[in-house]
């Protein structure tokens, strides 16, 4: 088996499963899951993400609604749009593309989304459900990472897992998921002492830092599974390039399994967004998720 965990292929197969579930929901329950994506302003990277999300939503058979608001939209107007979407029976998931312009309070907006229509897993109720082992919605990037780990390793029980990064959107939820799988979890961050030694103890190493190629191969335990969440844009030899937080060339020589950048965790994120939308549609209608 190749050492490389192919996130692109994994995401494609997840999208196929989602499409088959959506077809069953339409056929058996006359239910078409709908995802609304809200973009405020004209950040070019966000516009690309939103376009990709909408395209993939339609490709799996779901309904996609886009709301593009002006950069100067008042917070109250955004909140009232969210209220309308919360009340719209055709919309099962609401995603507000981050970052928001500075005059808008991000957490106020995220918490205004009804937790049953939250597909990012950022609503405080879903954060609480994840940390107490309840049935909430899980943030997309950690969800995609844990799916790939379980697919590759089977049971994760008893393994030493180190997550480098403690953000609310990646590091902390990733640590909660690994704990749910009965790993022994260490969360490292910018104040961690002897980070290299902490990483060397990991059977599973998750890097979510945002520093290009910070983790070299000699920080990795031979045979460890490495999930590189980092997406860093760098320039090398006059060319623009995407790299992760792990130095792929030296890490690949030591690791037992590793996600590349690009083509690892990245493609799983949108696939998991679609998965979360289907899950929320089923919850709202009290239907068990159909088999794929
Ligand atoms: P944040 O900036 O919110 O968090 C970074 C974390 O890394 C912080 O906890 C910080 O520690 C820690 N850190 C920073 N420097 C060091 C260091 N030298 N040693 C150890 N820890 C350090 O980033 P995100 O969690 O939002 O994202 C992390 C990376 O993942 C980014 O590259 C981002 O682009 C990528 N990403 C990829 C996604 C995907 O779809 N694949 C989705 C989301 C993010 P402290 O808390 O102490 O400051």
Give the helices and strands, then pairings.
Layout: H1 7-29, E1 34-40, H2 44-59, E2 63-69, H3 75-87, E3 93-96, H4 106-112, H5 124-131, H6 140-153, E4 160-164, H7 171-180, E5 184-188, H8 195-200, E6 204-207, E7 225-228, E8 232-236, E9 239-243, H9 248-254, E10 257-258, H10 265-284
Parallel strand pairs: 1-2, 1-3, 4-5, 4-6, 6-7, 7-10
Antiparallel strand pairs: 8-9
Helix pairs in contact: 1-10, 2-10, 6-7, 6-10
Short note summarizing the structure:
The chain is α/β, with parallel strands linked by helices and 292 residues long. The protein has two domains: 28-115, 3-Layer(aba) Sandwich (Rossmann fold); 140-266, 3-Layer(aba) Sandwich (Rossmann fold), CATH 3.40.50.
Structure description:
The protein is α/β, with parallel strands linked by helices. It has 2 domains: 28-115, Rossmann fold (3-Layer(aba) Sandwich); 140-266, NAD(P)-binding Rossmann-like Domain (Rossmann fold), CATH 3.40.50.720. It is 42% helix and 16% strand. It has 10 helices and 10 strands. A 5-stranded parallel beta sheet has the order 5-4-6-7-10, sandwiched between helices. A 3-stranded parallel beta sheet has the order 2-1-3, with helices on both faces. Helix 1 runs parallel beside helix 10, helix 6 runs parallel beside helix 7 and helix 6 crosses helix 10 (265-284). The mean pLDDT is 97.
């Amino acid at each position: 088996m190749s050492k490389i965990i192919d996130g692109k292929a994994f995401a494609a197969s997840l999208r196929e499963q989602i499409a088959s579930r959506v077809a069953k929901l339409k056929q058996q329950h006359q239910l078409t899951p709908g995802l609304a994506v809200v973009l405020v302003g004209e950040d070019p990277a966000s516009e690309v993400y939103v376009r990709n999300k909408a395209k993939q939503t339609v490709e799996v058979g779901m309904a996609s609604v886009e709301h593009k608001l002006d950069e100067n939209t008042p917070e109250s107007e955004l909140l009232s749009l969210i209220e309308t979407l919360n009340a719209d029976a055709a919309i099962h998931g609401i995603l507000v593309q981050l970052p928001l312009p500075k005059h808008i309070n991000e957490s106020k907006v995220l918490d205004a989304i009804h937790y049953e229509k939250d597909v990012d897993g950022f609503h405080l109720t879903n954060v609480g459900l994840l940390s107490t082992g309840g049935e909430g919605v899980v943030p997309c990037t950690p969800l995609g990472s844990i799916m790939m780990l379980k697919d590759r390793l089977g049971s994760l029980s008893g393994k030493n897992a180190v997550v480098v990064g403690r953000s609310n959107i990646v590091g902390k939820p990733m640590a909660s998921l690994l704990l749910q799988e009965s790993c022994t979890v260490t969360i490292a961050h910018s104040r961690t002492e002897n980070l290299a030694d902490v990483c060397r103890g990991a059977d599973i190493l998750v890097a979510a830092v945002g520093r290009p190629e910070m983790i070299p191969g000699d920080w990795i335990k031979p045979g460890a599974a490495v999930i590189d969440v980092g997406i860093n844009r760098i320039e090398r030899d006059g060319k623009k390039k995407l790299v992760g937080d792990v130095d792929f060339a030296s890490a690949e020589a030591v690791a037992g399994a590793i996600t590349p950048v690009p083509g690892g965790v990245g493609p799983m994120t949108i696939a998991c967004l679609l998965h979360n939308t289907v899950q929320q549609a089923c919850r709202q209608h009290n239907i068990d998720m159909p088999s794929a």
